[in-house]
Input
Amino acid sequence: MILKPYPLSYKDQAISYLFKETDIQFLILNSCWEIDEYHQDNSSIHPDALTQGLITSHKQIKDLEMKGSSVLRLGVWHHPVTGNDKITDDAFMEQLRKADVKMVMHGHVHEERAELLNYQHSKAIHIAGTGSFGAPMGDRPEATPRMYNLVEVSRDHKTITVNTRCRDKQNGAWKGWNNWPSDDTKSGRSFYSIKF
Output
């Protein structure tokens, strides 16, 4: 994405990338830094990496905010922060909330997820599980097809629409995954929208 070598030091494994033409910023973190073949459940975010990533991300947007621009901040890492396979020490989410990260995206669980963390707080964080794009059948929950999400951000950053696509058969065509609730109780939608 940014054509730079990935840092080998765990404390440096946070990448902040600002797309200046759209004022969208990604904070990419490594939730696998403590995992090896003997400790496969040790997912976490390195505290020093988070600190350095937030410092870098604040520097990137400082000039834009002084000009009155509003930057949409999104977080990305592999492991979920909710559910059975969640990162145990999820206190880092409080720092992201205070840094005004609006949404985080994760993988690992191979199923669709749409959740809200700190829903009573004015700076709640939306969470999107990214599906099961490359997961073989044995690694997916029963009857779960291959899936991926396509995220659309409105130009004013006030709405994110998550479009979920699926493929039922190994070599079949991709189509909308009509599994999200809709006003019509007889059918679902292939997307959901988040309003800020």
Observations:
- Strands lie at 14-19, 24-29, 72-76, 101-106, 112-117, 125-130, 146-153, 159-167, 175-176, 191-195.
- The radius of gyration is 17 Å.
- The chain has a mean pLDDT of 89.
- DSSP finds two helices and ten strands in the chain.
